[in-house]
Amino acid sequence: MTSELCRITVHIGADSIDVVLPNAVPVALLIPPLWDTARDLVADADPYRIPLARNLCVPGRGALDPSKTLSENEICDGATLVLSTQDPPAPSVGPLQAADRLAQSSARACARWSPRASVLTAALLAVALTGLAGLVVVPGTAGVAHLLLATTATGFAAVIAARAMPRHAPVFATIALGCVPATVISLPVTVIGGSAHDAGVGLAAAAMAILVCSGRLTLTLCGLSRTILDPDTGSAPTRAPAYLTAVVTAAACCALAGTALIIAHAPGPADYALSGVVAAALLLMSRSHADITRRGCLLACGTIAAALSLIVFRLLHAEHAALVSLILVAAAACSAWFATARDQRQLTPTARRCVDVFEGLALATVAPVACWALGFYPVLPSGESA
């Protein structure tokens, strides 16, 4: 048999009182006298400044139903309640139809096109068209001079766009930084009458040098090389990751472009060696970056450079098709193992050190192999294959 009375503890602010309440009375009728009693017992309380309580709550469960009694709200002897002066939150009514829920989830998951995206797209299109105009304005077949004018025009357009739209400065900084080594390499090659192959070798070597010095270059671009502890640097530390991404992305794309120029016209042994070394260095250097954009760009450029080299080698040397297929199958097997062996992804210290050594060897080999591809070693065959 249920008792007619219920002994509970009521908390109001930092104080509490022990009261005996009837079980058969609705909670809505208990709150006013309960509040009057609690207000009289609370020490140092100004009754005219204390807001009136609106709810009787259970800690962790929310407010009691005011239309029900204590027993109907499952309140028994010894319970602890709280007099609250805040209104309970309005119940959220979810969509009843599955189509409505799907529409709401799709709206939250998909990014909407905005006017800012339209402005960025228009600016990128303007930069691209400027570079294309520089490429086609020079008469004759495409050569290093066309590349020089195209990269110069694209770089200047990207710098102007970055100054005009500071919000998107890292995007245009990536384009401008990618044009800098291409322009610097194309200028002397054009002056001495070199070929696109020579420009590609220089571009790939310069891009790898930029990747090695990407951290120092980023600090210089952000003005942190000598003022890293200066409070007047403003938002330079917050811009550093974006500019590091711009430097790494631009250098990786330049390395890929240089590899494409190297193997575009009947490459020789030195050209295959240089493209392979550049691809291996890009893939190994991706381990040093945790950012998904930087690592993804390095992995993509390294993979594409290796694939281009293998495809050209297969097209020009059909007798080695089995070797190319074996290399591709081995690469696919390594990728499949890494994708499935989750517990083996963490390399041991010895294996990690070996990978570091391979990365250092690949980077150290770029310069001598580039000199070999340019014909600086007349003893070794580096000319174009028949």
Return the structural class. alpha+beta
Q: What does the largest sheet look like?
A: 5 strands, mixed
Rg computed from alpha carbons, rounded to a whole number of angstroms: 35 Å
Share of residues in helices: 55-70%
Number of helices: 12
Widest sheet, order of strands: 2-1-5-3-4
The counted number of beta strands is 5
Averaged pLDDT, please? 79
Q: How much β-strand is present in the residues?
A: 5-15%
Q: SSE string, helix = H, strand = E? A: EEHEEEHHHHHHHHHHH
Cα shape: elongated
What does the model show?
The chain has 386 residues and is an alpha+beta fold. It is 61% helix and 7% strand. The protein is built from 12 helices and 5 strands. The chain has helices spanning 27-41, 98-109, 115-136, 144-164, 169-192, 196-212, 214-222, 236-262, 269-285, 292-316, 321-340, 349-373, and strands at 5-12, 15-22, 55-58, 62-63, 79-84. A 5-stranded mixed β-sheet has the order 2-1-5-3-4, covered by helices on one side. A hairpin with a 3-residue loop joins strand 3 (55-58) and strand 4. Helix 5 packs parallel to helix 8, helix 6 (196-212) packs antiparallel against helix 8 (236-262) and helix 8 (236-262) runs parallel beside helix 10 (292-316). Residues 227-234 have low confidence and may be disordered.
Would you kindly provide a brief summary of this structure?
By secondary structure, the protein is of the alpha+beta class. The protein is built from 12 helices and 5 strands.
Features:
386 residues, alpha+beta, 12 helices, 7% strand, elongated
